[in-house]
Amino acid sequence: MRVLPSLNSLKVFEAAGECLNFTLAAKVLNVTQGAVSRQISQLEDYLGITLFSRAKGKLALTAQGQALLAVIQHSFSEIEREIGQIRMPNLRQRLAILAPPTFCSRWLCPRIHLFTQQYGQYDLQIYTEREEGVSVDIEICFDEVSQAGQHEGVILMEEYIAVCSQALLKDAASLIQGSLANNSHRMLHIRHKGSQLPSWDEWLHAANIPLPMGLHKSLTMSTQEQVINAAVAGGGYAVVDRNMVDLLLKNGELQQFDPTSVPSRFGYLLKIAPLKLGTSKVEDFCAWLQLHASPHA
């Protein structure tokens, strides 16, 4: 059982906080000004704080009142949005997907036509960042996966390979032979949660290539997408996920300059909003995703 003040008192407080006038709030709610005052007084008693201050005849929110109003506005908006999606048939057919930029541009978008051909009834919307007012049905996250084989919701596990452009391929031998001291400035790194993703370290270890002590010159970028673009342009050598560059390898825009490949502990995972679990649109997309993300797809 949730311990909360009455829903009515929260609705009255929201109106009063937005109007900053009890009389106007009463008109909005179609109640008397006295009813608004009583509800606000009861809510203040329940919380043990003062929500409004009065100075020179003007009503203003206290700091605690401002904080509570922001929470209530956000919560009511979320409830209204979710109920609207349940009620409105056209919204039930809208499928909103949130995914990392690299996954969207390098894996999902080149294949998404296969989904729309099979499931043309859905209004598909793809986002790479959260937007105000958008209720996401499915979120695809990139993170470390400790037990990939047992972790429910894993779509893809990364597999590190070393790539470069055709123009740099002839110089890759010096990198493989251990001349990193002279080539570290051409090593393209990916930033993840404030640190470099360990893709280079793990690949060099697997390839038995020593990394000189005290080596710091390198180029680090915010996303794997940026690193891939830089590598395609001839900007350096990159260790990236094979899943994200398979099409570039096939069309020759990137070259794998060493056969070493390394399974990563990082991968892409599915998160589904609780209210969307079991809906046909979510079930259809998840089934399609698992089919095309399988190693043999």
UniProtKB/TrEMBL annotation:
Q: Which domain of life is it from?
A: Bacteria
Q: Could you tell me which residue ranges the HTH lysR-type domain spans? A: 5-62
* One record GO biological process: DNA-templated transcription
Query: Which InterPro entries does UniProt cross-reference here?
Result: LysR-type_TF_proteobact-type, LysR_HTH_N, LysR_subst-bd, WH-like_DNA-bd_sf, WH_DNA-bd_sf
Q: Which UniProt keywords apply?
A: DNA-binding, Transcription, Transcription regulation
Q: Name one Pfam family in it.
A: HTH_1
Enumerate the GO terms in the molecular function aspect.
Answer: DNA-binding transcription factor activity; sequence-specific DNA binding
Instruction: Provide the family line.
Output: Belongs to the LysR transcriptional regulatory family.
Q: What is this protein called?
A: LysR family transcriptional regulator
- Source species: Aeromonas cavernicola
